[in-house]
Amino acid sequence: MTVRPRRSVLYMPGANTRALEKAKVLPADALILDLEDSVAPEAKAEARENVCEAVHGGGYGRRELVIRVNAIETAWGMDDLRAAASVEPDAILVPKVSSPGDIVTVAKVLDAINAPSKVRVWAMMETPSSILNAREIAALGADPETRLSCLVMGTNDLLKESRARALHDRVAVVPWLAMAIVAARAYGLDILDGVYNDFRDEIGFRAECEHGRTLGMDGKTLIHPSQVGPCNEIFSPTVEEVSWARKVIAAFEEPANRQKGVITLEGRMVERLHLVMARRTVAIADAIEAMRRTEEEWF
Ligand SMILES: CC(C)(COP(=O)(O)OP(=O)(O)OC[C@H]1O[C@@H](n2cnc3c(N)ncnc32)[C@H](O)[C@@H]1OP(=O)(O)O)[C@@H](O)C(=O)NCCC(=O)NCCSC(=O)C[C@H](O)C(=O)O
Ligand SMILES: [Mg+2]
């Protein structure tokens, strides 16, 4: 089983060259180089150049590189998409998705300009329509030609559009997160939680990471370098989880259990569905360890 950890996914404004440079040494699993909401209209063209230069120039090691473009119907959208595709990032993040058509249109443009199929598409779930259409949007993930591989929650825009209150328990946000999570899982997509704006509040941030992980998120989008470490920690399988997962795998490998659907392990019922979960836990832990080793060699 191969999995790509996406625990920590850090945004940075495309206009901020210092941040683009600094990100090369931050232990984030993925970086989103933003051309959209963090970039003022008068800085859009320059940000596009910075971001393309950064991706083309490389130096980001094992980090997944994602460019967030402006929506295709905006004045910058098509130029962003063409420029982003030309430097072949791992993915292009489409903002303000409302319906499957928004993703299909982007995929068609990418095909028309012969962007290699390794350039995937990620979708921002941040409009009320995206939540209502979560199933249909996620279903595109079943067709590799649409390139869709990940959903990203845009909780700031959802709060704005819904006029809900941004409280620490996220009472208004949870139903949207849950709808998007089941849609992602139904069609084999990864899904990332929204950002925590109060970046100096580590306690609140940690609580929100735990909350996202409990709901089933694969990782969290971030806005500041200080958030990367705690986020990696919370979205990594714990030592206890990995140890239990290895025991489950070993138990089912015993000759007496190979044909069994259910066994007892340390007083607990364990079924083959737990074996599937255990294999995933170990695969993620192994992938994290492999990334750590690569990083050591890199520096
Ligand atoms: C939030 C910030 C504006 C804070 O910036 P600043 O006050 O400059 O922070 P610091 O002085 O603490 O910075 C310390 C050093 O770290 C670098 N830095 C800061 N942020 C980043 C980053 N995101 N990536 C890489 N490096 C970063 C600074 O350059 C300092 O470096 P040095 O000078 O060498 O010490 C700022 O953090 C920021 O701009 N964050 C990202 C904002 C962003 O991208 N927003 C858009 C995405 S969020 C969103 O849109 C969500 C979604 O769409 C929704 O609807 O919810
Ligand atoms: Mg947004």
From TrEMBL:
Protein's UniProt keywords contain Transferase: no
Binding positions (Mg(2+)): E126, D157
Necessary cofactors: Mg(2+)
Chain positions recorded as substrate binding sites: R68, E126
GO biological process terms on file: oxaloacetate metabolic process
Annotated GO MF terms: citrate (pro-3S)-lyase activity; magnesium ion binding
Keyword Zinc on entry: no
Gene3D superfamilies assigned: Phosphoenolpyruvate-binding domains
Domain HpcH/HpaI aldolase/citrate lyase: 7-225
InterPro entries on file: Aldolase/citrate-lyase_domain, Citrate_lyase_beta/mcl1/mcl2, Pyrv/PenolPyrv_kinase-like_dom, Pyrv_kinase-like_dom_sf
Enzyme Commission no: 4.1.3.6
Similarity annotation: Belongs to the HpcH/HpaI aldolase family.
Xref: PANTHER family: CITRATE LYASE SUBUNIT BETA, LYASE BETA SUBUNIT, PUTATIVE (AFU_ORTHOLOGUE AFUA_4G13030)-RELATED
Protein name: Citrate lyase beta chain
